[in-house]
Automatic annotation (TrEMBL):
Protein name as it appears in the record: Cold-shock protein
Stored InterPro entries: YdjO
Pfam families (UniProt xref): YdjO
């Protein structure tokens, strides 16, 4: 049962990588992709860039500056 008070997430155009294989439904957000040219994590086939309207993600991983190793 749903109520009219349920907030719907705001969707925004998001860059994704999706599998070229029509039988495979795998896709990943560009911001979470490991490299510029992707291999499908499920079928290992090629992936292509696309767009999808998705809710915004709040927990983006920010790169942490590396600390120099101490000799102590």
């Amino acid at each position: 049962m749903t109520t009219s008070d349920d907030p719907k997430p705001k969707l925004k155009p998001t860059k994704i990588w999706k599998c070229k294989n029509s039988d495979c439904k795998a896709w990943v957000r560009d911001e979470f992709a490991a490299a510029t040219e992707q291999a499908c994590p499920i079928c290992k086939g090629p992936m292509l860039r696309s767009m999808r309207h998705l809710p915004a993600v709040q927990n983006k991983a920010k790169p942490q500056p590396r600390k120099p190793k101490s000799d102590f």
